[in-house]
Amino acid sequence: MTPRLSKLFIAAFSLTVVFVAGCASTTEGGAVGAERKQLLLVSSAELEQAAAQGYAQLQADASKKGALNSDAMLTQRVRTIASRIEPLTGVFRKDAPAWKWEVNVISSDELNAFCMPGGKIAFYSGLIKQLNLSDDEIAVVMGHEISHALREHSREQVSEAVAAQTAIGVGAALLGLREASTNAAGTAYQALLATRFSRGHEAEADRIGLELSARAGYDPRAGIALWQKMIKANTGGRPPKFLSTHPAEEDRIAQIQSLLPTVMPLYEAARKH
Fold it and tell me: How many C-beta atoms surround the C-beta of residue 180 within 10 A?
């Protein structure tokens, strides 16, 4: 084997080890069957630490503006819904109920909500007030956002970027490219970390989130009304931030309808308790 072929073999083997070692899943599929292997090359602890720091900064900034939990009734409403959903996350991840959950409402016209790794939740008042969301509809949104954290979509995205950078580094070494070229390519992949979740991630979060809200006793049929409101909000203007790369609302409604036979019994059972 020539030295060059030897290098190619070692590089290919190294990349294979990276991908095989990183293929895993930290969640169960639940009743909706959201099961697949994921590429997880970075530790969850690292991301959770970064998320906690970012969330603390978000709270500090909102507090300075007098926008942090300024509407006591709305904050209590959102936290009550979260308190019913959080214990049920154990269906998908046994460790999740013990996360250091935080729930805050930021007064803003922005139509947005999110859940950072480790259970750091933020709702923007504009989403609830401008769309006049019911508790059931808030629960659908919250279940969806929590599902991103449960399924570790952020960790998966970062891992994909790490794998891509690894491939770039190996390729650059094999081709004899200078470090500057490698850095330039790597910088492009850093931009991936700032992108929003893929449509596949969003569809997966819809499935898991719908089950979570149903198990918590919130009517999953509210998801249909929610996305109908989103269609109206999206007409002739900018879509809500957390919908910018999401699947088409019509597709989401179709998925909810297909899942109702699975999740309605969970909702009905929860209502009896």
Answer: 8
